[in-house]
Amino acid sequence: MTYLEAHHFEGSRTEKFLLKVSMEGEIFGVGLFETMAEMYPEHYEPLKACAAMEQFNIDYCESFARDAGVHVSEKKAEKLRKMGEKYARKHDFEGVAKDAIRETPAADLLYEHLAKGARTPELKTLGEDLYNHENALRDWLRSALDGESDGGAEVFAYLERHGITRQQVLAPRSA
């Protein structure tokens, strides 16, 4: 798609590397899905949920990343968010959705490696959760492309499993 192309994780598959690429991809995703939510009001709720899921995953990864000595600078994070925004504005909904669906197998591989090589049960769970989130995104995008949107049911379910309600996701942000 946009960020997680195969060359981003060929060769090195250390925990540090996998956590860094995971966080960077999620940061890109926040910019992408936040922008898409603005652009496509007919898909506003599931897109906001996708952005919230990406943000949750950044926060989820951070303690593991910190323990592994991995850091994404504010400057790099801002650049990645802007890349996501730019990508969303450059392509239509269908194009972004198809790219994301095409990218899912690469992301699945990344998260499977993270889970399989985990040194702790908690890190294994993180890898499995990231794998599940990727497939929730893909399944919603497929349903939307098919004209039978499930409203992001799996995306909202993922967030609920992690204590984030639909109301929290859709509440207007305070200034």
Q: Can you offer a commentary on this structure?
A:
This protein is an all-alpha fold and 175 residues long. It has one domain (11-170): Up-down Bundle (Ferritin), CATH 1.20.1260. It has helices at residues 15-39, 44-68, 74-90, 93-116, 121-145, 153-161, 166-170. The protein is globular, with a radius of gyration of 15 Å.
How do the SSEs run, as a string of H and E? HHHHHHH
Which stretches are low in confidence, meaning pLDDT under 50 for 5 or more residues running?
Answer: none
- Broad CATH class: Mainly Alpha
Report, as a whole number of angstroms, the end-to-end distance: 32 Å
Overall pLDDT: 91
Strand content: under 5%
- Class by SSE composition: mainly alpha
Outline the fold blueprint.
Layout: H1 15-39, H2 44-68, H3 74-90, H4 93-116, H5 121-145, H6 153-161, H7 166-170
In short:
The protein has 175 residues and is an all-alpha fold. The chain contains seven helices and no strands.
Key structural traits:
175 residues; globular; 7 helices; mainly alpha
